[in-house]
Design a protein that fits this description.
Blueprint lengths: L1 E12 L6 E8 L4 E3 L2 E3 L6 H13 L1 E16 L2 E15 L9 E5 L1 H7 L3 H11 L6 E7 L20 H16 L4 E4 L3 H14 L3 E3 L5 H6 L2 H10 L9 E5 L3 H15 L20 E6 L5 E7 L5
Parallel strand pairs: 1-6, 8-11, 9-10, 9-11
Antiparallel strand pairs: 1-2, 1-4, 2-3, 2-7, 5-6, 8-12, 12-13
InterPro entries: His_Pase_superF_clade-1, His_PPase_superfam, Nudix_hydrolase, NUDIX_hydrolase-like_dom_sf, NUDIX_hydrolase_CS, NUDIX_hydrolase_dom, Nudix_hydrolase_domain
Keywords: Hydrolase
Organism: Actinomycetospora chibensis
Length: about 300
Amino acid sequence: MTVYAAGAVLWRPDGTGQDVEVAVVHRPHHQDWSLPKGKVDPGETRLDAAVRELAEETGFAAVLGRHLRTVHYMVGADDKVVEFWSARAGEGRFTPGDETDELRWLSPPDAAALLTYESDRDVVDAFTARPPALRTLLLVRHALAGKRSDWDGADADRPLVDEGYEQAQRLARFLARFGVTALHAVPKARCRQTLAPYAEAAGMTIHEAPELGDGAVERDDGPALALLERLTEGGTGGVVAAVCAQGDGIPHLVRVLATAATRAGCAPLSDRDLADPPCRKGSVWVLSFGPDGTLAAADYHRDTAF
């Protein structure tokens, strides 16, 4: 059988403010040093599991960033699959326990030297392949709506169907894991409704973004790209925006951002073909931008239920 687990490279600025340090934990049961990680509980997403395991093993809350690596290895007869993210540490304090009895904050090279397993060292290498303090922006395609041919009213008023409302509920948990603090949507009912559960839970306003509509992007993508640039100017620890748009505009914008980054000499890290970005209804692109505003990584989440 396949056993799923999740974890992260938990990081924070070091004492100088010029670099970062990462958390490495000692597990007395295994007598090893590892990155914090653990099994996904029934009914739990891998994102949820990563944040929970960080809290349990290190005592720190965390906000996730870019996806780093998927690690496969065998545990007895089982195939274990572990997803790792970059995660910025929030408030917390380590308390020794039965699961982890020591935590060390170390520079990435020192952490790699201490880690017991090569697979964990590979994850740290993936973490250091891009600057840790990246700026996160989430591009959300609206959830499932009724067919246009079955709707008698204006297209802008076409609502989500029941399955779409369920997707929107799952999306709310997903957005929370990335610490989303600003919401923008194309002024269509299905886009606003996709973000509504998170907006209600977080007490946030959904701002209209007509420049991100399919027609607006097709006519002139300049205003849409300018908005995305403004939304990523807050930097790490600042605004993390989620934008809900449509199925033609999102792939176009991802493609343009990726092309610009490649021409600047640093192709974005992604497990997808950024020349032909997928965009399923209810899916999310997690985009990570460097300090200069260049796209550094692009992670596609086809379904927020996993």
